Amino acid sequence: MGERPVVVAGAVSGLALVLDEPLSLWGGLDPVTGTIIDQHHPQTGQSVTGKVLVLPSGRGSSGGSSVLAESVRAGVGPAAVILAVPDPILVVGGVVLAELYPDQAIPIVVADPSTFADLRTGATVSIDENGRISGS
Amino acid sequence: MSVSLSSAEQAILEGSDGEGSALAMRIVVALGEVLGAENLLPISGAHVDGCLFVGQASLDFAERLVMAGARVSVPTTLNISSLDLLHPELFRGADATAASARQLMVAYEALGCTPTWTCAPYQLANRPTFGDHVAWGESNAIVFANSVLGARTNRYGDLIDICAAVTGRVPNAGLHRTELRRGQAVFDVAGLPERLLEEDILFPLLGLHVGAATGDQVPVVVGLPGADEDQLKAFGASAATSGSVGLFHAVGITPEAPDLATALHGRPAEGRSEVTLADLRRARDQINGSPDAVLGAVSVGTPHYSLRQIEELVRLLAGRSVHESVRFYMSTGRDTLSEAEAAGWVSQLEANGVQPVADTCTYVTPIIDGAAGTVMTDSAKWAYYAPGNIGVAVAFGSVADCVESAVTGRMVFDGSLWDG
Q: Which of B86, B283, B384, B415 has the highest CB neighbour count under 10 A?
C-alpha cells in the first residue's frame, strides 16, 4: 500500500484521539459540544474538539455527514480525521465542509495499516498537505 | 481523476445543468474517487436522510443547492424530519430549532423531493424492486432495500443522498457490485429454543448481536424457520445500529439467499458461529437499562410502524386503556397513518390512550412527556440511541410487554422466553 488516499488535503498537527471502537457520528457525537454521547461507546463523554480524530471505521446510522460538518462549523469539531478505511459518511462530511466553509476545512486522510496501528491517544500527530502522517 | 465519466456526466460537472448540479456532481465524484470506483451508475430513485435538522450546516447545504438551482432528477422520497407536521403541538423544543427544522423541510421540498417523511420508505406504495440501483439514506431503510427487496444501494448518508438524487448517479462501488454482495459471516440460529424462533422479539435482539459481531461484513443467518417483513425490518434496523451492516442474507427467506451456497457465492464463509440464548440475553441486557424503574412513557414504532403492526397494537389494546401515569407514543409514516385512519384504527388507539406521531420519531426530537420516568420500547434501535439523544433511561420488551406495562402502569416482562 504505497498510496495514502487524501480525501481533503490540509496540514495540521494536534493530539490524537484514537477511538477504541467504531463510532456513528449521528447519535454518537453531539455537534453542539463536540462530546461523544454514544452511551455504549467505551470513550463516551470524551471531547473530540481540536483533536486529530482517529477512527477504525464508521458505524450505525447513516446520518453522520452533517454532524461532522456541523461540529467543525460550530468550532467544536476535530482538527483532522484519520481513517483506517474510507468510510463514505465521514468522507462526504469532510468534502461538504470544504465546499461550504472553505476556511474551516479539515484534512481527512486514510492511513495505511501500519501507520494506523502506530497511532496512540495523547500523542502529537502531524498531517502534511500530501497526507503524510507523522508522530512526535 | 480515477473515476471515468461519460460525456454527459462530465458536462454536468462543468456546469451544463447549473451550479447546483455541478456541486452535487463534485461530491459524488469525490466519493467515487475515495471508494476507487471506475465509473458512475445511473439510479432509478433515492431516499434522502438529510432532511433531519442536525445544525446550521445541514441547512446551509440544502439552501446552497436550492439557491444554485438544483432539482432532483429521479423520484426521491424524504426520511423523517425533526417535526411532526400533523401534530405540531407535540414538539417540546426551542422555537428557533423548530423554525430551522421547518426551513430545512421546505428546502428539501423545493429541491423536488416528495414529502413522505418516513424512515420506512419500503412501506410506501412505490418501492424499488429486485436489482434496481437506488441511493438510499437511513440505515434501516438501506439494509431493508438491499436485503429484503434485493435492490442495490450503498450506505448513503445525509448530504450525499441528495447529491445522488440531483445527479441521478452514484459511484459504481460497494453494494452496487454483485461480488461485494456475497455473504461472509454465517450465524446459525438453529440451536435457539423453538418458541423463541417464532417470536417478534427475537429479531431486534438477533440483529443487535449479529451487527456487533459482524462489523462491516455481510452476515448470513441460517436456521430461521421464517420471517415476515416486519421481523426482517427489526432485524436489519438493529444490525445497522450495533454494526455497519448494509446487507444481510437470511437463508430461505431473502431473495439472494435461496440456499447457503448461493448466499456465499459458492465460496467458503469467512466465519461461522452458533447464536446462543446467552448471546441474546446479553443483547437484551445491554439495551434493557432500567427494567426495575418507574415507567414514565412507552414509545413504539421505530422504524415507523407498518399497517400490520398498527393492527396488532389495536388488537393488544382492545377494551383496555393506557394507565393515567403513562404516556404512550406510536410513530409511523403519514401515508400509513392515513390508511390506519381509514380503517378506523387511529381513533380507536387514541381512545385507548395512544398518541400517534408522524413525520418524525420520538428519539430524534423532544416530544416525549413523562420522561421523568423510564421509557419502554419494543425497538432495539430506539433503546440504543435514546439515552444519548434525548437523555432518557430506557427499558426494552416485546410490544405485548409494552402494552401490558402501559396498561398496568408498571414494567412487566414475559420472562418465560428466556429460561432454559
A: B384
